[in-house]
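My current task is to audit a protein record that another person submitted. What it holds is a sequence and that sequence's fold in token form. Thanks in advance; the entry in question is below.
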Amino acid sequence: LKDTIKKDIEQNENKRIESDFKNRLLKALVAANPVEVPPSLLKEQKQSLIADMQKRMSEQGLGEAEFKAYADKWDKDFESSASEMIQSGFLVDTIAKEKNLKWTEADLEKKFDEYTAQTGIDKARIKEFYSRPEQMNRVTYSITEEKVMAFLLSSAKVKEVSKDKLKENLG
């Protein structure tokens, strides 16, 4: 039991570190290659972020009036996050096209196998879930993003630093 708990904690920490690294790499990519974001797309992404946050916070018991105050207070952060997400998406797509890093059917099958191993859910049910266009777009973009991140990591100069030296924000 101890070994299982230790392994689980290590896996969670590794995932957290990878996610943080990916976010920092994408922020650096956007900072070095700013892309103009169409206002309509920015508005749509920002609304999506706000709706998602509202759903999560209401599940935790936050009332609508309280959320409105929260959303008003953090409006610029929602806008900044939405802009970064769009810009990084544009850049990931561009790199994927230029370096031929798009997802393949073999990649998709491998991802379904991973999901099956992680969840214990039958592969046929996983494929059924991902047969919906919105879900399929998410998983295929995720695969493409993973390929681009691996490419960037292989060509980036990365310096490992201790946790206490990491800066919360780039630049």
